[in-house]
Backbone:
DNA sequence: CTCAAATGTTTCAATCTGGTTACAATCGGG
DNA sequence: CCCGATTGTAACCAGATTGAAACATTTGAG
């Protein structure tokens, strides 16, 4: 799932610029020219991050930020300010607002993207880190390694994420769509049947006999389930 | 063990801001509104770093710094000042006080975190850091020398830091962004792909055959991992 | 037993990612 | 101030990965 960014900015030149570069970096961008409907929309759509111009008509950016912070659903969403004069920075900082960064105008596209990414990285729930052992399978996320019966086995990034997800939810059945939601980065145009292909690839790597799987079982009509063999 | 930071700052708006962002960056933060109990507490808890507002009631920040410097247990703990006027900077840094950096208000969260990290990096016992041997590679940080198969090999500063970082975290996968965060000096906006270039330069120096690396492995879709060859 | 639905398997084009090189900008010593 | 070293970027290329499609096989309801 691509991160989505809500941008509140009245100057169309700037918002166009911001949108263009953030989209180029793989984000989904939604621009609001005024602050009026932002909070309402946000509660429904839950953006990953806000970028607010300090001065926007309809509602002051600072006020908007405060409102975001006071809305339970949005309180923990990171906020980045766009500021024109550095003098304004005082106000931001003086006013406790809990913005996570600010970007002074004018800014370079690269700086914009880098800062957004940096803030998101801070907020990203870190991936599972502890190594995991199931049967004869060992998964070490921090090294991104997989051992099967003592042998190191290479995996692609997607294979690894999917296997790790399964192994951390032993015994639970997941539909293909659930797996796409939780494991795939950008689910937009992925067919559920692609999961089948990855299940096959994983089975080839972990199952002694891929034809009769002992770990990654098919649950006909539902999806797949990962089991610890007896 | 997370580094712990003692912040002496009477303005609650600012101290909240500082705490929030430093905690977000993975530090343990303790805030003091006055300088009165700081030294005593510090002798027991041994913070990794101090951040002092120049003007704090109860005890002047400068005075506090001087006291820290004269306390044997704390003398080598880095100190960063928060200053309002940039004019004060010279005095703090240059003269008697032995502060290690200052952050002029207003500051951006990013700058705050970047400076703290930079100072900590400088203080990471650069001298006592032990030489390191991995396979046929020997790294001596105190001399900044690299030997490969008994031969001294020249490196640039950045190459050396990156290699050293890898060699001290054997087996772990690092994304390009993580490497930029931990190894690069100024938190400027460097393209993640620059890491690739340095990896190549390091490989040329340490790998018998840079085409099929035995130490510095690529982890497709994730980043790089340094291994001790078997 | 039959058949439709579900899943397995293989293939392959498009896309993505990393490798590599060349080079411009910057730094630092003399 | 100049020059070589270092740093970081851009551009291009090769190869790996991804995911859809096509076809095969299995399952189980009736």
Residues:
């Amino acid at each position: 799932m691509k991160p989505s960014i809500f941008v509140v900015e009245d100057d169309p030149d700037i918002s166009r610029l911001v949108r263009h570069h953030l989209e180029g970096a793989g984000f989904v961008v939604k621009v609001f020219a005024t602050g009026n409907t932002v909070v309402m929309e946000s509660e429904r759509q839950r953006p990953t991050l806000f970028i607010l111009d300090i001065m926007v008509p309809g509602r002051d950016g600072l006020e908007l930020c405060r409102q975001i912070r006071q809305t339970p659903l949005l309180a923990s969403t990171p906020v980045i300010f766009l500021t024109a004069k550095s003098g304004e920075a005082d106000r931001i900082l003086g006013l406790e607002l809990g913005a996570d960064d600010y970007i002074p105008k004018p800014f370079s596209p690269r700086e914009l993207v880098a800062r957004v990414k940096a803030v998101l990285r801070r907020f990203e729930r870190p991936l599972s880190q502890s190594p995991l052992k199931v049967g004869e399978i060992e998964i070490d996320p921090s090294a991104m390694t997989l051992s099967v019966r003592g042998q190191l086995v290479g995996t692609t990034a997607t294979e690894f994420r999917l296997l790790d997800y399964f192994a951390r939810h032993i015994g639970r059945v997941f539909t293909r769509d659930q797996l796409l939601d939780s494991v795939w980065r950008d689910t937009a145009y992925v067919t559920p049947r692609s999961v089948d292909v990855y299940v096959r690839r994983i089975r080839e790597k972990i199952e002694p006999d891929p034809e009769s799987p002992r770990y990654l079982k098919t649950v006909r009509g539902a999806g797949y389930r990962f089991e610890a063999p007896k």
Observations:
- Residues 156-158, 189-191, 193-194, 197-198, 220 of chain A lie near DNA strand D (CB under 10 Å from a C1').
